[in-house]
Write a structure and sequence with these properties.
The complex is a heterodimer of chains A (823) and B (110).
Chain A (H helix, E strand, L loop, with lengths): L10 E6 L3 H13 L4 E7 L11 H6 L12 H6 L3 E4 L3 E5 L4 E4 L4 E3 L2 E4 L3 E3 L12 E3 L3 H11 L4 E5 L3 H12 L3 E5 L12 H13 L3 E3 L4 E5 L6 E4 L4 E3 L2 E4 L3 E3 L2 H5 L8 E3 L10 E3 L4 E3 L7 H15 L14 E2 L7 E5 L8 E7 L4 E8 L2 E8 L5 H9 L8 H4 L13 H7 L5 E3 L4 E2 H11 L4 H8 L9 H12 L19 H10 L5 H7 L11 H12 L13 H5 L2 E2 L5 E3 L10 H13 L4 E4 L5 E6 L4 H10 L12 E6 L2 H4 L7 H12 L8 E6 L13 E6 L2 E6 L2 E2 L3 E2 L2 E6 L2 H18 L6 H8 L1 H10 L1 H18 L3 H6 L11 E2 L2 H4 L1
Parallel strand pairs in A: 1-2, 1-7, 2-3, 7-19, 9-16, 10-11, 10-16, 11-12, 18-20, 32-33, 33-34
Antiparallel strand pairs in A: 4-5, 5-6, 8-17, 13-14, 14-15, 21-22, 22-25, 23-24, 24-25, 26-27, 28-29, 29-31, 30-31, 34-35, 35-38, 36-37
Helix pairs in contact in A: 1-8, 11-14, 12-14, 15-17, 23-26
Chain B lengths: L3 E5 L7 E7 L2 E7 L5 E5 L13 E3 L2 E3 L6 E3 L15 E2 L1 E4 L2 E4 L11
Antiparallel strand pairs in B: 1-10, 2-3, 3-4, 4-8, 5-6, 6-7, 9-10
The complex binds siroheme, flavin-adenine dinucleotide, iron/sulfur cluster (SF4) and FE2/S2 (inorganic) cluster (FES).
FE2/S2 (inorganic) cluster binds next to loops of chain B.
């Protein structure tokens, strides 16, 4: 598998474009002929191969980009592939058998695969190139849309097809006011009949998306940037953002320039070969048998054929098949396949249930299904598709056909029995063309137990995900009781949602208060419980630092009153001693406070500072007042937030010290105090590897060396004992601060409430954290900046606020009743 | 029943509590999210935790010490835990709150 070694011997394979089709082709190729080629890829997009289909969930906020990457950087390294990111090929020289990129890199090939995909169709109207006009094709488009959506302004989406509607739904979830303009009388007219198109329009309108059909765009107008869209009927619609999703065109100019035969796309034979025997074309840019394609299922078929070709098998040929259409908008179920035009030779069966919003239509020709449109209830899509593909004569079951598979035969089947009854060659996953037999076979032969296993081994449900339910039923039916769905742990009994979903949806839907979260995410209780409320409060504090008004009633008592409750109902008070360093003034103040308030216990904590225990709640504000006069601020010993930064004496005194560990510790503590985190964060800085500050069992630790700073993380020494992992090495103190702050911010944004760093890292992976913090400069800076921004609102001493009267009610009884009153 | 005035409804934050010191011990007065008022001894049936310091949710409070959940309506521990706190009659006239200590046993009088 490894590309090292005798590269000289290998044939050179160059791929232009790093999209979904060639990614799949390489997987097949490495399976069949692992050592035959030395592979080089040029990709105009500056990134690895990702699941383009899933851009819509990224746009809506339901997924992060990292979750849709198909091949991470490691994959290319493992296979010895050279990937030129951000290199667009501008010329193919068929004589010399070379390609040249826009950055001037030239490489020669033995075999060339063109996989340049499609380009969005830009309406030829005035103003189509103004700032504010976007298309919807790649991650950059999504990023631009997300940025535009932050203003919560108006968006117009031109095109009411699959892409346009997914863009509209995503932008609406991001808080924009969205209007869809569609040229035809009903939405998605190529995949849906008018009745289903109408239901779809109504469902979108119910969500607040405006839809205007028969709308012909005449111009995009504005001064210097898009401000409105003008229609042919003279009306205008305000728009700060215009998304053109009016169709795609095969991206074939490169091949055309190279003199290859052109139709709508690059013409290839059923073996994916162009007229040049050394050049293949696959994906949306290719035209085979007169067809070009815009959904991945046939492209994956092309990928398989091309891989076979490259491996020396010239027999395998591409076969055309219809692909079902599904819309990936959460809450809207639709399915369509085949031909559903009216015609004299056709019959139709229709079922409508207006209250349930269900519409189903089957189109038959010669007693065989040739097309179907399902809206509102799509569970039988796979079955209808199967009947269509196998051209089954349905006369026997005509009367009950439309009710679905469950109604065939004597007794209605439950969904499990229904999947169990599907024939082995029934297609389950449309995107990846995986049939039932392949899944059940793999479950048996590979001992697969979970959905993730099945995805990894068969690719079923690994692309658009709309068959996930079906695949799960199939696993359940195959494994019986042995199937334990890897279900998410709900936050608490008030919801079915897990922490990740809740965090994602808060951002995606722009939820800004606890009641709003509970309403929108359909909490089952009226005002949550002691588990979910503090979690939601934290997520909102973290996500909207400038806007969210902290809900103290949703904080645990310690965080509400900024002291630690003790078993007898009294409190302890732990002021900050930056980096564990103190002086005579501070100690004298503590001594005076202890005397004045008759504090029963004073103790040095394990975190290098002093704890005063047994203070009456009523006394807290005046204790803090006295401490504050000497410059003490809260030590947050009670907080899911930054606790202590332990230090050792370092170069100041120690004969082994290599760096100013005390200074760095103090600097970090002063920079980061006051921040709220998913669980507590403890840090330490040791001046040399002797590690006297015990930095290697902290959430974040630093070991100083002659060469700089070794940053550690993900340690703990509480309920679990865990040594740290090394995040990486940096040379300067400034870099150390930058990396540590970025790391903590990443954790703040991703951690589940009460999940310490080491547990979060276990979930997301060490390498992922290292990659984002150590290697990705832009990400690191962005994390750092977001932390700094949130500190503007977090870094105020809660004690002095309370000394000045904040939350007075917390510290005094409401009333004190005298003896006679109670008689 | 003898009613004793203890203060105004708005002295207590929504989904919050205050305590009232009485000769028969501390009383916790709760205000729910929908402005229902409850009162009970400020003493968890588990190990005496101060219920007035807990998180109020629905018509229940979670004790700050070990997370028992106590029903505000009847003072019973909910879920798997067993035990109960003495509830105390409380009423709200206009915005003025009153409690009655007639039933308080006084055994925990401090
Ligand atoms: C005061 C102190 C003990 C001492 O006298 O030295 C202490 C006291 C408490 N610790 Fe601790 N821990 C103290 C250092 C530690 C350390 C040592 C350290 O930080 O170097 C650890 C192990 C390191 C670690 O966290 O990985 C430690 C691991 C815990 C844990 C287990 C956490 C875990 O995730 O495994 C808890 C329980 C929890 O947080 O849920 C805990 C919880 C507590 C609480 C807050 C219990 C509670 O919820 O009421 C105690 C509060 C006492 C109070 O009112 O002040 N304390 N605790 C130390 C205060 C440090 C400070 O200055 O802020
Ligand atoms: C938002 C969205 C939602 C979708 N939803 C679905 C769905 O639900 N189901 C479905 O089946 N399909 C869906 N699709 C379509 C599917 O994503 C495409 O069919 C598929 O990605 C095409 O794969 P490809 O390899 O042909 O091209 P692409 O994945 O487009 O990759 C082409 C790559 O080539 C690069 N490139 C182009 N020219 C050059 C050059 N000259 N030099 C170097 N590199 C070049 C491009 O930058 C691009 O990265 C969706 C598409 C989008 C945009
Ligand atoms: S180890 Fe920590 S939590 Fe346990 S008793 Fe001691 S201070 Fe309390
Ligand atoms: S004292 Fe209330 S739960 Fe333990």
């Amino acid at each position: 598998m490894n590309g090292n070694g005798n590269n000289e011997m290998k044939e050179k394979l160059i791929i232009v474009g790093n999209g979904m089709a060639p990614g799949r082709m390489l997987e097949h190729l490495f399976e069949h002929a692992p050592d035959r080629y030395q592979v080089t890829i040029f990709n105009a997009e500056p990134r690895v191969n990702y699941d383009r289909i899933m851009l819509s969930p990224v746009l809506s906020g339901e997924k992060a980009f990292e979750e849709i990457v198909i091949h991470g950087d490691g994959w290319y390294i493992d296979h010895g592939i050279t990937l030129y990111k951000g290199h667009k090929i501008v010329e193919i020289d068929r004589e010399a058998k070379t390609v040249r990129s826009d950055h001037g890199v030239a490489e020669s090939y033995d075999k060339l695969v063109i996989a340049t995909g499609s380009v969005p169709f830009i309406l030829p109207v005035p103003g189509n190139d103004m700032p504010g006009v976007l298309t919807y094709r790649d991650l950059d488009d999504v990023d631009a849309m997300i940025l535009a959506a932050q203003s919560h302004a108006k968006a117009v989406v031109i095109g009411g097809g699959l892409l346009g509607l997914e863009a509209a739904a995503g932008l609406q979830l991001r808080g924009m006011d969205v209007t869809v303009l569609h040229l035809m009388p009903t939405l998605m007219e190529r995949q849906l009949d008018p009745a289903a198109g109408y239901l779809l329009q109504r469902a979108l309108e119910e969500r607040g998306i405006k839809v205007k059909t028969k709308a012909e765009t005449k111009a995009i107008i504005g001064k210097g940037k898009a401000e409105a869209v003008e229609l042919a009927d003279g009306s205008t619609i305000d728009a700060d953002l215009v998304v053109m999703a009016a169709g795609i065109r095969p991206n074939a100019w490169l091949a055309k320039q190279a003199g290859l035969e052109m139709g709508r796309g690059i013409v290839v034979d059923h073996g994916m070969r162009t007229e040049d025997p050394d050049i293949l074309a696959i994906g949306e840019c290719a035209e085979v048998g007169g067809h070009t394609y815009g959904l991945v299922a046939p492209l994956y078929e092309m990928a398989k054929v091309a891989a076979a070709q490259l491996a020396g098998d010239t027999e395998t040929a591409f076969v055309h098949s219809d692909t079902p259409t599904k819309l990936k908008v959460t809450g809207i179920d639709l399915f369509s396949i085949g031909d559903f035009a009216d015609g004299d030779d056709r019959e139709e069966i229709v079922l409508r249930d207006a209250t349930a919003g269900v519409y189903k239509r089957l189109i038959l020709k010669d007693n065989r299904i040739i097309g179907s449109v399902l809206y509102g209830e799509t569970a039988d899509g796979a079955w209808f598709n199967d009947l269509k593909k196998r051209e089954v004569d349905v006369s026997e079951m005509r009367d009950t056909l439309i009710f679905g598979q469950a109604y065939q035969g004597s007794a209605p089947l439950d969904p499990m029995a229904a999947v169990a009854a599907l024939p082995d060659d029934a297609e389950i996953c449309g995107c990846n063309g995986v049939c039932k037999g392949k899944i059940t076979g793999a479950i048996g032969s590979e001992g697969l137990k979970t959905l993730d296993h099945v995805r990894a081994h068969t690719k079923a449900s690994a692309s658009c995900g709309s068959c996930t339910g079906l695949v799960e039923q199939l696993i359940a039916a195959t494994l019986g009781d042995a199937y334990k769905p890897n279900e998410i742990q709900p936050v608490c009994g008030c919801t079915e949602l897990g922490h990740d979903e809740v965090r994602r949806l808060i951002k995606a839907k722009g939820l800004r208060t606890i009641p709003e979260v509970m309403q929108e995410l359909e909490w089952k209780t009226s005002c949550g419980c002691a588990k979910c409320r503090p979690a939601l409060n934290y997520y909102l504090v973290c996500d909207w630092p400038d806007e969210y008004a902290d809900d103290y009633q949703s904080r645990f008592i310690n965080e509400r009153v900024h002291a630690n409750i003790q078993k007898d109902g009294t409190y302890s008070v732990v002021p900050r001693m930056w980096g564990g360093v103190t002086n005579a003034d501070q100690l004298r103040t503590i001594a005076d406070v202890v005397d004045k308030y008759d504090i029963p216990t004073v103790k040095v904590t394990g975190g290098q500072r002093i704890d005063m225990l047994g203070i009456k709640k009523e006394d807290l504000p005046s204790v803090w007042g006295d401490l504050g006069k000497a410059g003490f601020v809260s030590g947050h010993a009670y907080a899911k937030g930054l606790r202590t930064v332990k230090t050792c004496v370092g170069t100041d005194w120690c004969r082994f010290g290599t760096q100013d560990s005390t200074g760095l510790g103090i600097r970090i503590e002063k920079f980061m105090w006051g921040s709220w985190t998913p669980a507590k964060v403890k840090m330490a800085v040791s001046g040399c590897p002797r590690n006297c500050a015990e930095a290697t069992c902290k959430d974040v630790g630093v070991i100083c060396t002659e060469a700089g700073f070794e940053i550690h993380f993900a340690g703990a020494a509480g309920l679990d004992i865990k040594g740290t992992e090394v995040l990486g090495h940096v040379e300067t103190e400034d870099e150390a601060v930058e990396h540590i702050v970025a790391l903590v911010q990443m954790y703040r944004e991703q951690g589940h409430y009460l999940e310490r760093i080491y547990k979060w890292v276990k979930r997301v992976g060490l390498d992922e954290v290292r990659q984002q913090i150590m290697e990705d400069h832009d990400k690191r800076i962005a994390f750092f900046d977001r932390f700094v921004f949130s500190q503007k609102f977090a870094q105020c001493d809660p004690w002095s606020e309370r000394v000045s009267g904040k939350d007075k009610h917390e510290f005094k009884p409401m009333a004190t009743l005298e003896l006679e009153a109670a008689e | 029943m003898r009613w004793i005035e203890i203060g105004n409804l708005n002295d207590i934050p929504r989904r919050g509590a205050r305590c009232v010191s009485t000769p028969a011990g501390k009383v916790a007065v709760f205000r729910t999210g929908n402005d229902r008022i409850f009162a009970m001894e400020d003493h968890c049936p588990h190990k005496g935790g101060p219920l007035s310091q807990g998180i109020v949710h629905g018509a229940a409070v979670t004790c700050p010490l070990h997370n028992w959940v106590i029903s505000l309506e009847n003072g019973q521990a909910m879920g798997a835990d067993e035990g109960s706190v003495q509830t105390i009659p409380v009423k709200c006239e206009g915005e003025t709150l009153f409690i009655s200590l007639d039933q308080l046993s006084g055994e925990r009088a401090a």
